[in-house]
């Protein structure tokens, strides 16, 4: 049963669950196991939180099927995502954090600031549409741009692409890509995509060849190099 909406601020743990559910699925239900793995907690703890979110009217939970966000839960998740990605942008543009460090710092800060702070930050930054990793920043009204990029692992040999987004979940991946100049906006020629082991070989604009394993190729998201669409992003964006 859906509980009454509350005007009290959500705890940091509830906010983290909402974001993870939103990140893992935009339709259907997300499993207890998937959320437990993402948050490094016991499945029993996830089950208890799913029930709590349902009581708060933030999620729908069905045993053995998992949880999905209600419209209100999705709004709350996107509000936190907006705050997180704006903080990341501020840290990189104004405090000179590296793109591999901003995610963890933003995780700590997002629960300590208000919505008013978030909107003042957006104004200071000029209302960017993308964060330092290329992820779209939800608008203040909760709308989110449609993502047109796809994993590099899904490209075809002979294509010319440009990097539009990179996964920020693993700092080591960002370190690896940054050291090789594989940053947002970089144009690449796809030389080979091996079905057997998922290895992707690309060549950058300087003629340097890069070999990416399957997991790394899935962490880099690209658009066609000829795609005229250009989002007004943050520092480091195309």
Describe this structure in words.
Among the domains are: 12-69, Winged helix-like DNA-binding domain superfamily/Winged helix DNA-binding domain (Arc Repressor Mutant, subunit A), CATH 1.10.10; 150-224, SH3 type barrels (Roll). Strand 5 (187-193) and strand 6 form a beta hairpin. A six-stranded antiparallel β-sheet has the order 3-8-4-5-6-7. Strands 1-2 form a two-stranded antiparallel ribbon. Helix 1 (12-24) packs across helix 4 (71-94). The protein is α+β, with helices and mostly antiparallel strands. The protein contains eight helices and eight strands. Helices cover 38% and strands 16% of the residues. Mean pLDDT is 89; it is low at 1-7 and 232-238.
Task: List strands and helices in order, with pairings.
Elements lengths: L11 H13 L7 H8 L3 H13 L3 E4 L3 E4 L1 H24 L7 H8 L5 H11 L24 E2 L8 E7 L4 H9 L7 E7 L6 E5 L4 E4 L1 H4 L2 E5 L14
Antiparallel strand pairs: 1-2, 3-8, 4-5, 4-8, 5-6, 6-7
Helix pairs in contact: 1-2, 1-4, 2-3, 4-5, 4-6
The largest sheet, given as strand count, sense and whether it forms a barrel, is: 6 strands, antiparallel
Query: How many H/I helices?
Result: 8
CATH topology of the domain at 150-224: SH3 type barrels
User: For the CA atoms, what is the radius of gyration?
Assistant: 19 Å
Shape estimate: globular
Q: Helix/strand-derived class?
A: alpha+beta
CATH architectural category of the domain at 150-224: Roll
Instruction: Give the H and E element order.
Output: HHHEEHHHEEHEEEHE
Query: Low-confidence segments, ≥5 residues, pLDDT <50?
Result: 1-7, 232-238
CATH homologous superfamily heading of the domain at 150-224: Ferrous iron transport protein A (FeoA)
Strand content: 15-25%
- In total, the number of strands is 8
Taking the alpha carbons of the first and last residues, their distance comes to: 46 Å
Overall pLDDT confidence: 89
Helical proportion, percent range: 25-40%
Strand order, sheet with most strands: 3-8-4-5-6-7
